[in-house]
Amino acid sequence: MLKDIFIPMTGAPADGAALNVAVALAAHHQAHLTIAELVNLQAPVTGPWDLAPAMAMGEVHDRLRSQARANAAKLRNRLQKEAVDSEVRVVEALSSPPPEMAVSLAQCADLSVLAGTAGSPVGDAVANAFFSELLFGSGRPLLLVPPRGKLSLPLKRVVIGWTANSHAARAVHDALPLLGDAEQVDILMIDAPAGQPDKSPDPGSGIADHLARHGIAVKLVKKASHDNPLSQILIEHAQKAKAQMIVIGGYGHSRLREWVAGGMTREMLVRSPLPVLYSH
């Protein structure tokens, strides 16, 4: 059950799409929505006389605060049109970067919603920073919404990218409040290992049975990668299945290794045209 949803405004072009999804989720689940308008206030740089730089930085901060208040007012006007219990907070990030400031708010929510990459170097850097901090620091699931991404509710078709590890198991558990109305949930295993008589003769059957006991209609699907990127196979299957959302565990390998090597998490972050629910 979702009762608290959080979304930070990152300044990325996809903020609008992410906000639409967050509002729709809050309305559907009758949840409280918290929106953070983050003000990135740079720490003053001390000059030789310690006065002019501080005065100049104070003027910059005043402009940033004024812009943040204006942005917050626009958000409140937008939310007045929605039947959603909500609040807009202006959060000043002075001693810590905005993504780190967002973590404390995300920790008090059931789900965070975040704008995905817009494809520009600056947009990628912003999205990556928020994504990493929220995924690793909040202890909560993170729904990444790509530019032009939409989420029709209630969800009817969902695809879970399944590997037998703790991250995927957490993702499935965190997705349960969103899966109750689904007509079909595909559990996709790519390059599934052979069954072992002393463990599970049919890999994937255990998690499929678990979801079925929750009353969810499940279909176990196994595919071979044939050396194609795993993200490509997952996205193509989701599109063919007319899925509205994908669920995966975030960073199944070491964080640095996967980011440098271009693992599943990074590829989905960059490539997926569908909203993706991540857990770690």
UniProtKB/TrEMBL annotation:
Residue ranges constituting the UspA domain according to the UniProt record: 157-277
Q: Which domain of life is it from?
A: Bacteria
Q: Which InterPro entries match?
A: UspA
Stretches assigned to coiled coil: none
Recorded hits in Pfam families, A to Z, give: Usp
State the similarity comment: Belongs to the universal stress protein A family.
Q: What is this protein called?
A: Nucleotide-binding universal stress protein, UspA family
Q: Which organism is it from?
A: Pseudoxanthomonas wuyuanensis
Please spell out the taxonomic lineage of the organism that makes this protein.
Answer: Bacteria, Pseudomonadati, Pseudomonadota, Gammaproteobacteria, Lysobacterales
